[in-house]
Design a protein that fits this description.
About 70% of the residues lie in helices and about 5% in strands. The chain has about 300 residues and is mainly alpha-helical. The radius of gyration is 24 Å and the shape is elongated.
Length: about 300
């Protein structure tokens, strides 16, 4: 309850439980200063990616052979690369690729992992055994090695790289969602829903799935950072984004041969990869703390 004045008289006003819960959750999040700073950086990065054509001072693919390997200056804030392209502009456009790869790859993993995890955890039995053995087999491979193998089979290109990364991330979501379903399927409200005659799909979607959203949101946030690193790694090895499209990983690969003469070619995209990944991880920690009902 909260007090309000009506005609000079104080009266009590009922506060919605949802409103109170939302305020509590936001308070938890803003208490984590690192998560707030990380969130601000992510918002800035998204703004850069959305308005890259407006923000970038140069065409990221424009070559100027009179300005090859120029050091950072007022005209070229991050310098130029081996064929005279503006590094700052390429970094800004590279943010588009990284965020796109992170979001779409995780979207692919969720679109597969959520239904499979729900079915596996709810029905158990032979279906669960088959799904879990396939999941265990995929998890037995190092994620980057599996992504490389899938990207090599599918072929080079950003779309195939995102598909490969999405498949690699899927087993983690399957196991997480299955574990959450197992924790809820025997509870009283689920048993009551079954006893009332609801079909299985309604029990899953209406009563179980909403209770798995909090851990899914946290895992998805952290998985975006892994997807960005994987995309940069695949692009570094030539299996991800193809020239002339700017990619932070491809820029690192191009800059490794100029570390002594023009280190800014590799340092600038490397710094942005580091800042983006650590910001997403810190933001994910903040989301986890915000959604954790055990925290006060």
């Amino acid at each position: 309850m909260e007090l309000i004045k009506v005609g000079g008289i104080q009266k009590e006003k009922a506060i919605s439980p949802r409103k109170t819960m939302f305020k509590t959750m936001m308070k938890r999040f803003f208490q984590n200063k690192l998560a707030v700073v990380a969130g601000i950086f992510i918002v800035i990065l998204i703004f850069m990616a959305l308005f890259a054509p407006v923000i970038a001072p140069h065409d990221p693919s424009e070559q100027d052979y009179s300005k090859i390997l120029k050091a950072p200056s007022a005209e070229h804030w991050f310098g130029t690369d081996e064929i005279g392209r503006d590094i700052f502009s390429r970094v800004i456009f590279g943010a588009r690729v990284s965020l796109q790869a992170g979001l779409i790859s995780v979207g692919i993993a969720l679109s597969i992992g959520i239904p499979v995890g729900l079915i596996s955890g709810f029905y158990r039995g032979a279906v669960d055994e088959i799904i879990m053995r396939i999941t265990d087999a995929l998890l037995s491979f190092p994620s980057l090695v599996l992504a490389l193998a899938l990207a090599a089979v599918l072929g080079a290109g950003l779309e195939n790289a995102m598909m490969a990364i999405g498949i690699v991330l899927t087993p983690n979501f399957i196991r997480l969602i299955r574990a959450e379903v197992l924790a809820h399927r025997e509870r009283e409200y689920v048993e009551a829903a079954k006893a009332s005659g609801l079909r299985d799909w309604r029990v899953i979607l209406i009563h179980i799935f909403p209770n798995t959203l909090a851990p899914i949101m946290v895992q998805a946030t952290l998985a975006i950072a892994s997807a960005i690193i994987s995309e940069a790694s695949l692009s570094y090895l030539g299996l991800g984004t193809q020239p002339p499209t700017p990619s932070w990983g491809a820029m690192l690969s191009a800059g490794q041969g100029y570390l002594s003469d023009a280190p800014w070619i590799a340092i600038c995209p490397g710094i942005f990869i580091f800042l983006t990944v650590i910001s997403i991880n810190l933001f994910g920690d903040g989301v986890r703390d915000m959604l954790d009902p055990k925290l006060k």
